[in-house]
Amino acid sequence: MITLSPDYRPSEDEEFMNERQLAYFKQKLLHWRMDLLKEAGETLASLSEGGIHEADLTDRATVETDRAFELRTRDRARKLIIKIDMALARIEDGSYGYCEETGEPIGLQRLEARPIAILSLEAQERHERHEKIYRDD
């Protein structure tokens, strides 16, 4: 188990995806996952407090809209947790940080911004251009 100093940040000067970098991204992903689960628990607690008790139709509609929005947000968080779990599995199998399409390193800046990234910036741009051309309108 690698112990990281609180101010450690991966650097281009290091070997790509060395033990320290892997430990850094694993820790980052685990914290992100924990925060999402905590928020989900808070949402569940607030939604289970009871039904809508607003007498006014406008207030009732506002509460229902807020709940629907919160449920959509939680669904996105649920999907993000799945992607985080997949990234953690890639750390364990040694494929984390490498583009699934090209096998090239994804890049530390991209991983810092989006630790669940599976494509390099170039591959992601190609994917998005292809999607834009062939999407159903």
UniProtKB/TrEMBL annotation:
Location in the cell reads: Cytoplasm
**Ranges for domain Zinc finger DksA/TraR C4-type:** 94-129
Matching Pfam families: DksA_N, zf-dskA_traR
The answer on whether this UniProt entry bears the keyword Zinc reads yes
Mind listing the UniProt keywords for this protein, alphabetically?
Cytoplasm, Metal-binding, Zinc, Zinc-finger
Tell me which residue ranges form dksA C4-type zinc fingers.
Answer: 99-123
The DnaK suppressor protein DksA N-terminal domain sits at: 21-91
Q: Which InterPro entries match?
A: DksA_N, DksA_RNA_pol-bd, DnaK_N, Znf_DskA_TraR, Znf_DskA_TraR_CS
Q: Which SUPFAM superfamilies match?
A: DnaK suppressor protein DksA, alpha-hairpin domain, Glucocorticoid receptor-like (DNA-binding domain)
HAMAP family on file: DksA
- Cross-referenced PANTHER family, in alphabetical order? RNA POLYMERASE-BINDING TRANSCRIPTION FACTOR DKSA (PTHR33823:SF2), RNA POLYMERASE-BINDING TRANSCRIPTION FACTOR DKSA-RELATED (PTHR33823)
What does this chain do?
Transcription factor that acts by binding directly to the RNA polymerase (RNAP). Required for negative regulation of rRNA expression and positive regulation of several amino acid biosynthesis promoters.
Q: What does the subunit comment say? A: Interacts directly with the RNA polymerase.
Q: Which family does it belong to?
A: Belongs to the DksA family.
The protein's name:
RNA polymerase-binding transcription factor DksA
Species, as recorded: Bombella pollinis
Organism classification, top ranks?
Answer: Bacteria, Pseudomonadati, Pseudomonadota, Alphaproteobacteria, Acetobacterales
Q: Which gene encodes it?
A: dksA
